[in-house]
Amino acid sequence: xxFLLKPRIFGVLLFDGFAPLDVFGPIQFFHNLSQQYPLEIIxxxxxxxPVQYDYKTQNIKVHCSFGNTxxxxxxxxxxxxxxxxxxxDTETKEFIxxxxxxxxxxxxxxxxxxxxxxxxxxxxxxxxxxxxxWNWVTSISDKVDWVHQARWVEDNDLITSSGVxxxxxxxxxxxxxxxxxxxxxEIANAIEYEAQQDSNIDHFASVFPASSNKQQM
Length: 217
Prior knowledge:
With 217 residues, this protein is of the alpha/beta class. The protein is built from 9 helices and 10 strands.
């Protein structure tokens, strides 16, 4: 119950080339949640400047830079083509690892798990990722217990989702886990979304078998 009542800060890492649905799908759930519970959602970029999502069609303003980000309770890392460069960006990786260690809940969507893996945070943990980009993501680290057949994977307070739209199912699960089934259902109904309830059901694991991926998202 204390998780529900205490003010919480939910930080979302943004960067050039993030996938918009990775962010804005789950954020719709947490926005609705913030209407009922003390939850502040903040967007973060390295320098505090606006970023552009995939295909550079829109500037998105943020609230914080790496230097003035407060301590986070929930930390979300999305995916997108921009992750390809960031897995080699030392400053970004250090920021991610710091907040993964400090946050109560860590949540990645799509190839965001590649960023987590690049920091070593996923070592000896279970995780999943985008099935179309599976070969690339899993090449980042062989110290992760990668789960291919999964819509999302829970490892204690770490939740990693499969590709893009799967982030909404994982967001629904997080709300169920830390708030209640009733709150999660109320929010899903309000946004008219029928969330997948079984994390083991992942149609796209067969659409994009692990050994035959050719394209990467």
